[in-house]
Amino acid sequence: MRPGRPLVRFLSAGAVTAALAALLPAVPATAATTPATPAATPAATPDQVPDVLPAPAAGTTRIQIGAFNDFHGRLEAPDETDDGDPVGGAAQLAGVFDAMRAKNPHTVVVSAGDNIGASTFTSFIQQDAPTIAALNAMGVAVSAVGNHEFDRGYADLVDRIGVQGRPGANGAEPLAAFPYLGANVLKADGTPALPSFATTDVGGIRVGFIGVVTQQTSSLVAPAGIQGLRFTDPVAAANSVAAQLSDGDPANDEADVIVLLAHEGSAGTDCATVQTEGAFGRIVQDTSPQVDAILSGHTHLRYDCQFPVAGRSTPRPVLSAESYSTAVDDLVLDVDTTTREVVATGHQVLAVEGFTPNARVQRIVEDAVAFAEDRGRQPVGSITADITRAFSGGDDDRGKQSPLGNLIADAQLQQTEGAGAQIALENPGGIRDDLLYAQSGSEGDGVVTYAEAAAVQPFANSVVTTTLTGAQVRQVLEEQWQPAGSSRPFLALGLSEGLFFTYDEAAPAGRRVRSVTLDGAELDPAAQYRVTVNSFLASGGDNFTTLAEGTDRTELGKTDLEAFTAYLGLPENQGLAPDTDLRYAPAAATTPTPVPPTVAPTTPVATPTQTATAAVPPSQRPSRTPVAAAPSGSLANTGTNVAPWLAAGGALVLAGGALLTAARRRAS
């Protein structure tokens, strides 16, 4: 037994397996005591976790559960406050747990999944091993499996990452010192593919954790990696295990408190809809009353709700802590020591800011950053001339289509041909630097390094392919003309080769696109097309709301940066030259007179902004003017010929922490 760690038992379809798990403090979050609307995030005093309940009554034991979700390898802080202080990051996340442990020693830390996968380069370049090391060090006791845990396939999850919480000596495989739970993940013969639950002692109270993952996982990851697995109804699976943990038979293992860790989440933050809409609404409504709380994730949203449940004396908390370590769930339960019933609940979702970083985790992060910076100097491709964003007056202009935006769209189309992709689109705000011919170090002119590619695409969005009708594709192109009040009236999407549209700037909003062709043939409004975008756009980002309506969603299992570097490494793509031909044109022969933009016909959804940088002077309409070359950037991308072995690469890049602080939170 590991010193200072309680025994944790795991069960898959009745088979109990002994293993060890780390037990550490819980996490802060935002207070909400009614099922209506989540309350505002409480402001935390440094290293202080706000109270959510008065002092416990005599005869009760107070336990605390800290939870996070959708970490996605964000070892470095993914955001910052207006004052420049870090928000999130592995070391500060661990610092929150330290503060919670100091406040209440009866604390356990858990995750609702997607700890790894779609990670930034700092974690990805070592196949997320530094992230698992950081989670071990901060004392994660148990995690639900997320869909991104399957990005490298089931075999990698079981054999390298580990699902039973038994790491090898000195960090040898498997890596995770905590179990990964998936009660609704079955093999082809119906036997469990993962542990269903884990139980642990917290202050003398036996707490059971059940893990489930979204039933859509099979459409979110590469099919080859999960061949033979079935993702079943999460409600039925959770209820079956909850009944087992409450049947009074010690041979099946028993729990005084049961918590569901669900890697499935609400599509909105209003508690009134959290319990009613979609697959997650069914989880909230139909999960057994034996389950005392639901901690969720997957949709990267923050909500803090509670709902009455028939047969329970206390309402059931339902929480989600956004993503990327920027927030945490803090769940406090008072348990009667005689009846073992929960008699009081308190909860909040607290921003991860203002906490002292954990020194041990900080060292893990620093080592990972140093390793990534070294690997960032490696070549991934070559170019013959600058391939840049669009510019006006020396500033990048997102209102004009650019050779680099079109190149990224081409790369994502090629990488997702296996998912049936026919069209790919790239948002200009996702492109943060240029590929420049001149060397940035000693790599030689024309060589593109990992670091240089990472500077172009630093957000580590996943790559998503969905199905849209021809009419919807046309509407997406209309949405380039942004709603009134937007920082830029027009956002020029990068378009994959073969897609072309004409426009009439003088036409009313919603009717500016006149013709859309794919490989020379007009799009059929009723036909279906497979369209690839990054996960930011797929969620309706930058007011491209129609993209969120896509169906049959498939994830590549790579970030946009991975897809880009894999494309750059192909032998046929060595010595890439910029394609300066625009993939749109005015419908008339003469240049139309610009008119003020008007409100687009669709209502934009609230989405996270891609960057926090100040708006640059926008173009009123698409331009036929050749794109000007960018001035030398602070991190130039260059190159000479690279060896064909790069073609096998799917290796990505993100160079060091400086790139990551610019990255904003993204849905996955």
TrEMBL record:
It comes from the Bacteria. Residues 1-31 form the signal peptide. Residues 587-632 are annotated as: Disordered. Residues 635-668 form the Gram-positive cocci surface proteins LPxTG domain. It holds the Pfam family Metallophos. Keywords: Cell wall, Hydrolase, Membrane, Nucleotide-binding, Peptidoglycan-anchor, Secreted, Signal, Transmembrane, Transmembrane helix. Residues 600-618 have a biased composition (Low complexity). The chain crosses the membrane at residues 642-663. NCBIfam families: LPXTG_anchor. This is 5'-nucleotidase C-terminal domain-containing protein. It comes from Kineococcus mangrovi.
